[in-house]
Structures are given as structure tokens and as C-alpha cells.
Design a protein that fits this description.
Elements (H helix, E strand, L loop, with lengths): L2 H16 L10 H16 L12 H24 L8 H6 L8 H26 L9 H7 L6 H5 L1 H14 L4 H19 L5 H17 L5 H23 L6 H5 L12 H17 L14 H7 L2 H8 L17 H33 L3 H15 L10 H17 L14
Amino acid sequence: MSLVSLFCFLIAFLIVLSCFRRGADIFSPARVFGFIWTVAIGLADLKLSRLQHEWSAFAWITMLIGLLSFLFGVFSVSILFIGKSTYSINEIRRRQFSFKISPNKLYLSILILFCLYTITYLIEWFKAGVLPLFAQFPDRARSEFPIFGIHLCIGAMPVILFLVIEYLSIVRTLITKKIMLTAIFLITVISYFFLMNRLYYVLFFILALGFTYYSTKFIRLRTVGFAGIVLVGLLAFLQYFREARYVENFLYIVSEMRYSSKYALLTGPYMYIVMNLENFARAVPRLESFTFGFFSFDFLMAITGLKHWLITYFGLQERIYLVSGYNTFPFMWDYYYDFGILGLTTLSGSLGFVCALIHRWMRTQPSLLNVSLYAIILFVIVISFFTNALTSLNFIFNSVLIIFVHILIKRKKSRLIPMMVHQ
């Protein structure tokens, strides 16, 4: 084990230990970001695959600039509000009594979104003729299945599941509504499984995790660990269907792992964590020109329909200098690809500042909207080693949808509605 890996794992361990401190906010931006990235860099420096390479000094410096800029933005908020108090986690949970919402509007919102999801699902199924899971080539069918525009309704799957969890967690309701919402939840989870898209399960998991942590007493470190194991198992099961039909131990073979095939099961998680960083480290020294905002604002290009036209007209390459077939980059890549070191520093720092600001807003003015908003930010931080969620049209759409629904269901009158408090 290299000194870099040892140092990173030590920092990650200390971050975990800090979570046991009484009153600690285990999902604070700096704590989550620090843990995710120390583990990712520590694993990457183990070099367990022959596809990995030694990083240049410039690649190391560039990556550290991006990470430290994000943390500087986070700590800038702490300095800006130094000496000003925030509510404790337990107080935020107790204040769920002040979550003044309209249960009927929330229930109706879930039904409308589920209907749109179902209708769009059937349209795309009819157009494709077969669901990706049952296609001869599942991975190719998965990418060809969506219809641009209306597929956003299917992409709202995590929003539907999240709103169901919110409703069942905080609203006293009739048993008939509970049965209906449970059925919607199960139908959505199972039907989306056939589309073989794993990322939105992760989005729902993080949203639900953030919400339940800040609004109930259900979430503890042990429950986080158990839920994480279940999620990894589900993602591994999806991966099996996507690749097992081609060759046994597919990932282990093509990834040229340095360890025994007895541990081939570890290949998928390891490669999906480290190859994003490897792509970044390989591309940074080779990049000779910048795209000046095209990829940082990819969602705007997509929604206006200009994305593919501009790529063709200017001869832009969306993913360059890839290692083998791995085509994802960490969050900071888009900023560097667009604006170089200057963009990497300012945009990463701004992102850290906004994440910390929303976290503090949630800690000082707890509400259902603010808790949900920080749950969205939590996903951005957790997935930052893998991609920049803020450039994705689907993610922006889901985020806007969550915010819109929570504004819609907010009760203007001061009277409270009955809530359930988890003990």
C-alpha cells in the first residue's frame, strides 16, 4: 500500500470517528466530501488494475486545486457566519411539527407524477418493442430506449419514490392511502428495474437518506451501513444482467486486475470508483484547448436542442482521452475542460460555497423544503467522484420538480397538521 493510500484511508477513518461525537452532523458538506474523496483517491492509488497509470505532478496539482477550492468554499460559509448559532440535529427533527404542508396536494402530486411516469413508460415500451432487461443486447437497448423530452417523466422515478417516503413519514393518513402509495412505490421500483439504469436508484437512496436523517430518529450509522449494503447489492444485480450474458467475470477480465479471480466480485465497485479519477488524471495534461462553458452548462444545451448541433459544428469531443471503455469524469472535469485552472478554482469554490450555504440555511430555518433541498445537494456531493450532477438535464429537471412540489404543497395558513414523530 502506498503512502498516499495509507494517508487517505487514515483521514477517512478519522472522519468516521468524528461522526460518533455527540451531536455530530454526519452529513455535513465537508465531512461527506472529505470521506468520499479520501476513499476514492486512496483506492485509486492502490493501482489494482493494469489499466491504471501513474499520475503526473500536474494531474495531482490540478485535482488538489479542485478539491481544496471546494473545501475553501465550504469553510468560507463557516467563517462568514462564525459565532452565529444553528439548530442541533435533534431540534431539527423535533421541529418537523412545524412542517406546514397540505397532505392532499402532496398526495395529488404523487398521483399525477405516477400517471405521467406510467403513460411515458408504455409509450417508450411500445416504440422500442422490448424492455432493455429482456433485449438481446441489454446495454445497447438501454441507451436506445428513451425518447428525448418525454423521457424526463420516466426520469422522475426518484422524485415519485422520494415524495412517497415523505408522505408516509410525516403525514397521518388513512390505511387506503397508505396501501395506494405503497403500491405506487413498488410498481415504480420494479418497473424501472427493467430499464437497467442504476444512477436514479442512487439518487432516490441519497434523497431518502438525507430526508430521514434530518427529520426522523431512524437513521444511525448502523442503518446507513445496512442501507448501503442493500444498495450495492441491487446495483451489482443490475450489473450482472448487463454483462453476465457476454462472458463470465467480464469486468475482471477486461479490467486486467492484479489480484486473483476469486475476488472478481470486487472489480465492479473498484473500477467504477477509480476510473473516473484515472480519466481525469490522463486527460488534464493532454488538454490543449477549452470549450468556454459548453459542458459546465450542458443541461442548457440539451434543453434548447443546441447540444448535438454545436458539437458537430465546432467539432467538440464530449469525452476525450478515455482509459479503455470507461467514460465518466469527476465533477471538476467540466470546469477544467471549459475554463482551465481559473474555472476549476472559481467554479469548484463556488459549488462548495453554495452547498455549505444551503446546509446552513437548512440548519437555521428547518422546513420540509429546506431539508429536501439539502438532500439534493447531498447527492451532488456524494456523486462528485463519478460525475458532475449539475450538468445533467435529468438531474436539474428532478431538482426543479422537487422544489416546485414543495412550494406547491406548503400551507400558507399557520395551523399545523398532524405529523408522525419517529422514536
